[in-house]
Amino acid sequence: MEIVIQQLTKSFGAKKALDAVNLHIREGMFGLLGPNGAGKTSLMRIMATLLPKSAGHVQICGVPIEEKMKIRGMVGYLPQDFSVYPSFSVAEAMDYLAILSGMSDRKARIEKIDFLLDKVNLTPQRKTKIRALSGGMKRRLGIAQAILHDPRVLIVDEPTAGLDPEERIRFRNLLRDFSEGRIVILSTHIVEDIEFTCESLAVLKRGQLLYEGKVKGLLDHAQGRVWTVTIGRSQLDEVRAVYPILSTVSEGEGIRIRLLSDERPFTHAQPIEPSIEDAYMKLMGGGA
Ligand SMILES: Nc1ncnc2c1ncn2[C@@H]1O[C@H](COP(=O)(O)OP(=O)(O)OP(=O)(O)O)[C@@H](O)[C@H]1O
C-alpha cells in the first residue's frame, strides 16, 4: 500500500501552490507540516480528487488519480471546514451521509453507524444536535463520516486546530488506531501533533518540499546548532538581530534564551539537544 507523487504541480494563475513535489507515502501515519500557504490543503484536495492538478502524477495503491470514482472509494477525507446541518442529530447526520455514500440497506447502515460512533466515542451524543457539539466532538464526527466506506487512505486537514489538550490527545490516538494497516495523512502546522503520532513526514514551504523522511531524521538538521545562554534583558534586541531565537524564559535579573547558530554564539553558551520544533524552525530558516 503506497501513494506515489511525482513532479506534482498546482498553479493558480501565476502562483504555484505546489511546485514539482515528489513524495512516497507508505502504510502508517504520515505528517504534512508547513506554515500557512505551504500547499498542504492543495496537495490533500488533489489526492481526494477534489482539485485538479496542473502537472505531474499521483497514484494511490497503483491507481492513477484520474480514475476518480476508484480513488474516491479508497480515500476518506476530512476537510478543515467540515460541517453538516446543525439541526440534525449526530445519528441523523451520519445516516444522511451514509445514504449519500450509497449505503441503501437501512439495517446495515444502522449497524455501521453504531459501530463508528462507538469507535470515535460519540455514542452518548447519538441524539445530540450538531450545533450543540464541542469542536472536538465535531472533528470526531468528521472522522466517523470520512471512514464510513472503510477507506484504505484517510486524509485529515488540520484536525487539531482549536482543540483543548485533552481532546487533541484523544483525537491523535483515534487516528493512530485507525492507521493500522492503512495510510493516514495528517496535515498540521503544530509540530507536536506530528512528533507524537507520525513515523514519517514531509515539510512544505511555499509549494516546495523541504524535507521528506523519518521524524527523527529531521533532528539532524538542528544537531549541534541549538544553544542556550542567559543574557541581560537589555541585550535581547541586540542578540535577536543576529540569531534566530527559539524561546525565552525569565531567569532572575536575566533571561534564558534558546537560539540557533551554526557555531558557538557566545563563550558561555551551552549546546543542547534539539527538539523537533527546533529542527523545524531551523528548516524554515528562522526562529520565533
Ligand atoms: N483557489 C485558489 N485560488 C488562488 N490561490 C489559491 C487557491 N487555493 C490556494 N491558493 C494559494 O495557494 C497557496 C497554497 O495554499 P494551500 O491552502 O494549499 O496551503 P496550506 O498549506 O494548506 O495553507 P493553510 O494552512 O493556510 O490552509 C497559498 O498561497 C494560497 O493563497
UniProtKB/TrEMBL annotation:
Residues 3-231 form the ABC transporter domain. It comes from Paenibacillus contaminans. Belongs to the ABC transporter superfamily. InterPro entries: AAA+_ATPase, ABC_transporter-like_ATP-bd, ABC_transporter-like_CS, P-loop_NTPase. It holds the Pfam family ABC_tran. GO terms for molecular function: ATP binding; ATP hydrolysis activity. This is ABC transporter ATP-binding protein. The keyword Nucleotide-binding applies. SUPFAM superfamilies: P-loop containing nucleoside triphosphate hydrolases. Keywords: ATP-binding, Nucleotide-binding, Transport.
